[in-house]
Design goal:
The chain is an alpha/beta fold. It has two domains: 130 residues, no CATH class; 155 residues, Trna Endonuclease, Chain: A, domain 1, CATH 3.40.1350. Helices cover 53% and strands 18% of the residues. The chain is built from six helices and eleven strands. The mean pLDDT is 85.
């Protein structure tokens, strides 16, 4: 019996050593003999933060699956090892305890994996939503705009990201993307519509102001930051956009709430430009420096 446990334990150690070794080797291979300099840094793409979190979650899913496989086995094996040294009714109690522990471990692992699966799905949904908005912003470049995505903002103790910033003749626009899943609608509400009265967002299932307040805070921070760098406060307008939703506007408010397809027409200049070409270039260079941190 002891020799069998030694063999099983040795196999587990060798197995985990092999898995860890393969992971480290693959990590080394990713950076081996790259054809461009180590100092090269690219601009952030749409959903860069979500993409990084997704990548880490996907890498960790291997660890989580190993945990899901090993935890019930280890718990059950440990209890069985104790049980075989018992006698009489205590051995029956030990077997029942082993079965209960096995079921509890399986339930706990299943719930954990389900939670990580939901997190992975929600992250991907948010990432895809930001990609949709990025595509809707592409035509702005032909109108003299500079567009940046997933801009890191805030201070070291309280960082945050602005999903998109468009800089053009009509000013600076801080765009926050919210990708909501559709749910069951209350009476009098359509499941594909969000109603904005200038103060509150009414979803099919309820109301809130979270996205509106977030968009305003981010626009204020951006205006303050640019004012410190440039010595002048450029006009910064907050936009809140919902990919896949129809927006019903029943009042004007401090935040422009739009479907991504409506952004192009909402930000195009009308009348005298708010920013000159030189100001646009100056602001764009500051944002470029802040966003250029994507490494191989």
């Amino acid at each position: 019996m002891l020799s069998s446990w030694v063999i099983v334990s040795a196999y587990i150690v060798v197995f985990f050593t092999f898995v860890v070794g393969m992971f480290l080797w693959m990590k080394h291979q990713r950076k081996d003999r790259r054809p461009f300099p180590e100092s090269l840094k690219l601009l952030r793409g749409p959903g860069e933060t979500q993409h990084r979190v997704l990548t880490k979650l996907e890498e960790r899913m291997i660890d989580y699956l190993l945990l899901a496989f090993c935890l019930p086995v280890v718990v059950s094996a440990a209890l069985l090892l104790i049980t075989i040294h018992l006698a009489g009714p205590w051995q029956d109690i030990g077997l029942v305890a082993t079965l209960v522990a096995l079921i509890a471990s399986l339930v706990a692992v299943s719930r954990f994996l389900a939670q990580k699966g939901r997190e992975l799905a929600n992250r991907y949904l948010g990432y895809f939503g930001e990609r949709i908005v990025a595509e809707a912003l592409e035509p702005l470049k032909a109108q003299g705009f500079r567009v940046f995505h997933d801009i890191p903002c805030g201070e070291a103790k309280s960082p945050f990201n602005i999903d998109h910033i468009a800089v053009g003749p009509s000013g600076v626009f801080a765009i926050e993307t919210k990708t909501r899943r559709k749910g069951r609608a209350r009476g009098g509400f359509a499941e594909h519509e969000i109603i904005y009265d200038g103060q509150v967002l009414a979803y099919p299932w309820g109301e809130d102001r979270h996205g509106l307040e977030q968009a305003q805070r981010q626009a204020r921070w951006l205006a303050d930051w640019l004012a410190q760098l440039l010595g002048q406060r450029p006009p910064v307008s907050p936009i809140l956009t919902f990919p896949g939703w129809m927006i019903i506007r029943r009042g004007a408010g401090p935040v422009n709430v739009l479907n991504p397809k409506e952004i192009l027409f909402a930000v195009l200049p009308r009348g005298t430009p708010a920013l000159t070409a030189e100001q646009i270039d100056l602001i764009a260079r500051q944002l470029d420096a802040r966003c250029r941190d994507v490494e191989y």
